[in-house]
Specification:
By secondary structure, the protein is of the alpha/beta class. It has helices at residues 20-30, 52-60, 75-86, 103-115, 131-138, 158-163, 187-199, 262-274, 280-283, 286-290, 296-300, 305-319, 340-343, 348-359, 385-401, and strands spanning 36-37, 98-102, 121-126, 142-149, 155-156, 169-175, 203-207, 231-237, 249-256, 323-324, 333-334, 337-338, 361-362, 364-365, 377-380.
Length: 405
Amino acid sequence: MRKFYKSHKLDNVCYDIRGPVVERANKMIADGMDIMQLNTGNPPAFGLNAPDEVIRDIRVNLKDAEGYCHSKGIFPARKAIVQYYQTKGLFGLDEEHVYIGNGSSEMVSICVQALMDEGDELLVPAPDYPLWTASAFLSGGKAVHYICDEENNWYPDIEDIKSKITDKTKAIVVINPNNPTGAIYPKELLEQIVKLAVEHDLIIFADEIYDKIIYDDIPYTPMSTLTDETLVITFNGLSKSHRIPGFRVGWMIITGNTKDTADYLEGIDMLASTRLCANVPAQYAIQTSLGGYQSIDDLTKPTGRLYRQRDIVYERLNQMEGVSCVKPQGALYAFPKLDVERFNITDDTQFALDLLNKEKILLVQGTGFNWPENDHFRIVFLQSPVVLNECMDRLEHFLETYRQK
């Protein structure tokens, strides 16, 4: 029988959040070793569970969720999403421009696939959430990475964005609050990005999955509220804010210039219809989750668990010789920098493997987020304060003598 090989469309795709370092960790776990996991944003795995009210409402509605629903989602959930964005200052959104998906990730794939032809370019931040880069290449296009500036709170470099816009550029991705850096972008910076998008006829893809996970009362501005001159597609969901990633419930909203993009939106409709509909039972969590009391606020305030865990990681990292870290303002992650000369690091994947083998700590190397250098790694601060402090002790001990061979 002839041999079969994976598609060449995968040549530029990486998803090291579940890559070779994780494969090594899984083998160690199978051998009975305890691994301290700092690699994925999976709240329930660390005792951060969904509100009881959300689970109850899904159970109550199970009998009504046995069949397919509209390809865009059930009406009460789409209506609740419209009303949620009204509280954010966005008016004019209607239910027909709300699509519910199996997580926001499915919506990302649909939107990029519907847009890009061979040779088309998508502007994606570096570092990025790797799904965006993967979706661009899998759609036959190309991800072009613009730099986020660590020296400026990890904000996007506007001049770098300008330099990378070509006649092949179709859209720009903005991840805010940011994964993996935890940055939150000021309104003035977002307005500059909007101005560029309008000038160059670019669609804006606004990844706002962490819009409820914000620390220190940092002001937050949804991208959709800033323009009606170009198309803005916003992605969000309940996986992180309401701790139900396994339910796979997310959405996208379409705002701005829908008149000149009607054919593209028809393509989105076509792809949304081919998968029939999203997981129906989980959609009954949306209305309950977006209205009323928000339990995530208890976790992100100064006395909350996420707030304290963020501070532990930030403070301990900056106390280590050869490590620096910009303070995360939102989300669940820190993206610290290593002194590569001090540690002789030429391969950050090898660094992650060495740390795993020596100290039983699992994290993700910076190049797994399409960062161009071998000098960063991402830490997820979902572990309890006790475990995080032990992880920081082990990391500090490891770095005291580490020199990459």
